[in-house]
Amino acid sequence: MKVLIIVDDYLPKSIKVAGKMMHELSLEFLHLGNVVTVVTPDPDQTESVTFSDLEGIQVIRFRSGKIKNVSKPIRLFNEILLSFRALRALSPWLKKNPHDLIVFYSPTIFWSGLVRYLKAIWNSHSYLILRDFFPQWVIDNGIIGNHSILAYLFRFFERRLYRIADCIGIQSPANLKWFKETYESSLNTQLLYNWASPLEKNKNQFSINIREKYNLQNKIIFFYGGNIGQAQDMKNLLILAERMLVFPNVCFLFLGAGDEFELVKDTISTKNLSNSLLFGSVSQSEFTSILSQVDVGLFTLHPRHKTHNFPGKILGYMQVGIPILGAVNLGNDLKNVLEAENAGLVCVAGDHDNLFKNAQTMLDPETRTKMGENAKKLLESTFSVATTVHKILSTTKNESGDKN
Questions:
Q1: Residue 138: how many CB atoms within 10 A of its CB?
Q2: Beta pairing class for 276-279 and 250-257
Q3: How far apart are CA 291 and CA 275, in angstroms?
Q4: pTM for this structure?
Q5: Which pLDDT tens digit goes with each residue over 20-36?
Q6: Positive or negative CA dihedral for 11, 16, 20, 21?
Q7: 57, 82, 217, 352: which sits with the fewest CB atoms below 10 Å from its CB?
Q8: How far is the CA of 61 from the CAs of 37, 43, 68, 187, 196, in angstroms?
């Protein structure tokens, strides 16, 4: 089978979890004997289109405007044009190279034009990997109004995206239930958890030794890595860091980028959080190196969310076998998934007393070791990339890959 994967962020340039996840997905398709091509935008290249090879995956990059780390109006303008720019650059190649399966990733919600064109010329099966309900989460957080012009614009593109997919993979049971109650019942959906591949043994050879570099040899490191934005409500973790100042052997390490980066930076300074360090984004190899040296993985979700996402960052924590400590919006079943397997402790966002209590539990080394082992087992049993590819292929006409 020839598989085309469409995503707005991909290795080796990607610093986001999605880029790494989609490469692992591509490799699993490849290992099953499929031919895999990835189409992704690149705002930095001067050529209209470039072709390269990454571990046997053909990666096609088309020139686009910036959609990361720019103002919201510029990002919106460039995201709306993604399909147009992809088609302008790739139409001749796409016409000559039909594929059997189109897998596309959201966010962004603006791939419908490209996918609609490909389905028309190839008659291919299309599968949408849906990770965020946009614009719902920005409405929930009060960033735009429910009846604003922007909300209507986004919902128009959102509906187009869902309707062009033959199947939509949704990342949690609670989200799947919410989606079915909110959108058209005719849409074909399935539960599709996030995924990750087991890490290769690196024999503790770190590209950057954070314990040595920052004098953290005897510290218990609570680590947050990923998007530092409004959807996360970083105040949850900053309040926790302040309360944990009473434990001199504890350090909080925040790493990433986003629209609450300055908030975290300013809070560390004004609250004199001597137990906290903040770093900007790093490469995937550096990120994995740092992740391999920490003790507890942190995550937080905004309490006003109506949908129930499973943050991709928890997969990295599972990969390195560390316990997971977090806060979720009410009703998010990630709490049940992690605590049922004793892989972590989760409270409702805003319940600072419970979060503080759970953090203290993580100070016990035996508890951390046991939960870390369980987290790694949970990755293998529930969040494996092999399971993900099997579920995607099960929605095609012939799972073996032979459509003839």
A1: 18
A2: parallel
A3: 18
A4: 0.76
A5: 889 999 999 999 999 99
A6: negative
A7: 217
A8: 11, 9, 16, 31, 24
